[in-house]
Design goal:
Blueprint lengths: L5 E2 L3 E9 L15 E7 L23 H7 L1 H5 L12 E8 L5 E3 L3 H6 L8 E8 L4 E6 L5 H10 L6 E5 L5 E4 L5 E3 L3 E8 L5 E4 L10 H7 L16 E3 L2 E8 L4 E8 L2 E4 L7 E13 L6 E4 L3 E4 L7 E14 L10
Antiparallel strand pairs: 1-19, 2-3, 3-4, 4-11, 5-12, 6-9, 6-11, 7-8, 7-10, 13-14, 14-15, 15-20, 16-20, 17-18, 17-19, 17-20
Length: 335
C-alpha cells in the first residue's frame, strides 16, 4: 500500500457520567446526548459493539483499521506485535467525566494466568482539562486491608479507602493492571491503554443499573502499595521551536509530549514502527507526497503507519501533541 497518515471516524460512547466537553475537541456530539468517550483508535474483537475504527481519509477510507492491517500488516505495523486476535495493540480515547466514573480495576498477571478469558489492561491518563477542585482516585490507601475494603464495599464507604489525587492539566497518570481507580467529575483526559475490555466494577456511586464485579475485583486488586502521584516527566529536548518531553515509558506503550510556541515544520520519522499523534490544542497540517493533506486541530488523532516516508508536519503557533509509540521488539537486540 502507499503509506499515508490515517485519521479515523470517532466512535462516540454515550455514558451516564458523560458530558458535552468533547465538543471542544472537535467532536460532533448528538443533540442532548451525554458523551463520555470518544474512541479515537480502536481495534477490539467483534464481540465488542462499535469497537473497530473506520478510516476516514485517502484510498483506505471506509475500511476498518483491522482490515487494513490484515491486508498489509508490514506497511502499517512494521515489526510491532498484534493482539492475539490480529488487532492493533492499543486503544486510544478522549474521556469527559461530568460525574464520577465507577471505581474499577483491571486484571493483573496472576488473575489472567488463572482466567485465560480475561486480559491485562494497563492505561494512562493525560489530563487535558480539570476543574479547580477535581480529583482522580488512584490506588487503595496503604493501610487499608483486603478485609476492610470488602466490608466498606458492602457499607458504601469504599471511597474513603481510596487515594483522592488533585489533578492539573498536563499531568500524566499511569494505572497498571491491578490498580483500583476512578476518573473524578470535572476531568477530561486523553487515555492510552492496552487493547482490552476486561473491567471489574467495585462501586458505582449509588447507580443501580450497572453490574458490579466485586469478587473478581478483590481477587486482582493491589493492596499495601504506596501512593504514586503523576508520573515525573523526563528531561525535555528542545530543537528550534519544538520542545519534546517524555511522559511515560511502559512495556506496552510510550508517551511523549510535543510542544511548539511558534510556526514550525517538523519532519515525521516513524523509525519503522507505527506512531500516533493526539492533538490537544493548536493545530497545523501534515503533508505527504501523493496523499491528501491531513489537517490537525484540537482533538485530531492520526496514525502514522510504520512505512510512512517523507511526511512533514507544519505546526502553527502554540500547539501541543501527544506522541504515542509502541516499544520495538528489536530494542536491545541491535548493538
Amino acid at each position: 500500500m502507499h503509506s499515508y497518515p490515517l485519521v479515523f471516524t470517532p466512535i462516540l460512547k454515550e455514558k451516564v457520567w458523560g458530558g458535552r466537553n468533547l465538543a471542544d475537541l472537535g467532536k460532533q456530539l448528538p443533540l442532548g446526548a451525554l458523551i463520555g468517550e470518544s474512541w479515537e483508535l480502536a481495534d477490539l474483537p467483534l464481540t465488542v459493539e462499535a469497537g473497530r475504527s473506520v478510516i476516514a481519509n485517502g484510498p483506505l477510507a471506509n475500511r476498518t483499521l483491522h482490515d487494513a492491517i490484515a491486508a498489509d500488516r508490514e506497511a502499517i505495523m512494521g515489526p510491532a506485535p498484534l493482539t492475539p486476535q490480529g488487532g492493533f495493540p492499543l486503544l486510544i480515547k478522549f474521556l469527559d467525566a461530568r460525574e464520577n466514573l465507577s471505581v474499577q480495576v483491571h486484571p493483573d498477571h496472576a488473575y489472567v494466568k488463572k482466567h485465560p478469558r480475561a486480559h491485562l489492561k494497563s492505561e494512562a491518563w493525560v489530563v487535558v482539562k480539570a476543574e479547580p477542585t477535581a480529583v482522580i482516585y488512584k490506588g487503595v490507601k496503604r493501610q487499608v486491608t483486603r478485609e476492610q475494603f470488602a466490608r466498606h464495599i458492602e457499607t458504601g464507604q469504599v471511597v474513603n479507602d481510596l487515594n483522592a489525587v488533585a489533578v492539573t492539566p498536563g499531568e500524566c497518570y499511569y494505572l497498571p493492571s491491578g490498580t483500583c481507580h476512578a476518573l473524578g467529575a470535572g476531568v477530561v483526559v486523553a487515555e492510552i491503554q492496552s487493547t482490552s475490555d476486561t473491567t471489574f466494577r467495585v462501586y458505582d456511586w449509588g447507580r443501580s443499573d450497572r453490574q458490579l464485579h466485586i469478587e473478581q475485583a478483590l481477587e486482582c486488586l493491589a493492596f499495601g502499595e504506596a501512593l504514586r502521584g503523576p508520573e515525573p516527566p523526563g528531561r525535555p529536548i528542545v530543537v528550534g521551536a519544538v520542545r519534546s518531553t517524555p511522559l511515560l515509558k511502559t512495556e506496552m506503550f510510550e508517551i511523549e509530549r510535543i510542544e511548539t510556541q511558534a510556526d514550525t515544520s517538523l519532519q515525521i520519522v516513524t523509525s519503522g514502527m507505527p506512531m500516533i499523534w493526539m492533538t490537544l490544542n493548536g493545530g497545523g497540517e501534515i503533508q505527504t507526497p501523493n496523499a491528501p493533506t491531513v489537517g490537525l486541530s484540537a482533538g485530531t488523532t492520526v496514525l502514522m503507519p510504520a512505512s510512512l516516508r517523507d511526511s512533514v508536519a507544519s505546526l502553527w503557533g502554540a500547539t501541543t501533541l501527544l506522541c504515542v509509540t509502541l516499544p520495538s521488539p528489536l530494542e536491545g537486540l541491535i548493538a
